[in-house]
Amino acid sequence: MPEGPSIVILKDLIRELHLGKPEVLEVTGNAKNFDKDRLLHQKVEGFKSWGKHFLICFNDFTVRIHFMLFGSYLINGRKKTPVKLGLIFKKDELNFYTCKVDLLEGNVKEHYSWENDVMADEWSSSAAIKKLKEKPNALVCDVLLDQQIFSGVGNIIKNEVLYRTRIHPLNKIEDLPPAKLKALVKEARNYSFDFLKWKKDNTLSKHWEVYSKKECPLQHKIDKRELGKTHRQTYFCEKCQKTVK
Questions:
Q1: Were 3 and a residue from 28, 119, 124, 154 both cysteine, which residue would form a disulfide, CB within 3.0 to 4.6 Å?
Q2: What residues contact 181, with CB distance under 8 A and at least 6 apart?
Q3: How far is C-alpha 69 from the geometric centre of its chain's CA atoms?
Q4: In sequence order, what are the beta bridge partners of 105?
Q5: Cβ atoms of residues 118 and 112 within 8 Å
Q6: Which of 62, 65, 63, 50 is nearest to 112 (CA)?
Q7: Which residues have a Cβ under 8 Å from the Cβ of 57 and sit 6 or more positions away?
Q8: Distance CA 142, CA 28 (A)
Q9: Domains and CATH numbers, the chain
Q10: SS3 per-residue string spanning 161-191
Q11: Is this structure's pTM higher than 0.90?
């Protein structure tokens, strides 16, 4: 599943096409939960990202692309795989595959708050801390994947942030001292931008310290377990990451 930084890369790639506000000349694909003809001859007002969502904004509605587990896209190219949504402009085309496509009515700002998007300029660490304190019994391995607190954080970022901050995934929010809570919030954003840089350089996996590893950088054994309510795969070091009692 693409994490927030990967969606930012898609947005940047499209920006490099210098499309401006292009008119949709043709719509293709097998998306069936809205009338695709509504997009015809409409001008795109902008391309945005919110967490793991890619947003194509029109005057009074927005097309939301969620890549789920196996989604992908091609810019000015096509796959043999059936396209879920394809948009053809005068000089360029965008094709999205194996993804979830929805149409959101009204202004996109009515649907999203960018203060909880870890990649956004509007990101608010104080808002994140406030929301975390409202979930005292939640496990940190769960809250890092809560898209209403850390929009854009996925399983890779979760594992690496917990190791960076030396926080055990089974710690509860209420057990973390204020300094650790602030570190958790700070590193969720910091690592996301590191992820972005490494992804662009095609070196992301070379920088993993625990994710998919058998030993941590200090050569301690890595535990691999499905933890929390999310049951997502978690990699952690019992020696480096301590539970708070």
A1: 154
A2: 129, 132, 133, 173
A3: 12
A4: 61
A5: no
A6: 50
A7: 44, 45, 46, 47, 48, 108
A8: 38
A9: 4-112 (3.20.190.10), 115-236 (1.10.8.50)
A10: HHHHCCECCCCEHHHCCHHHHHHHHHHHHHH
A11: yes
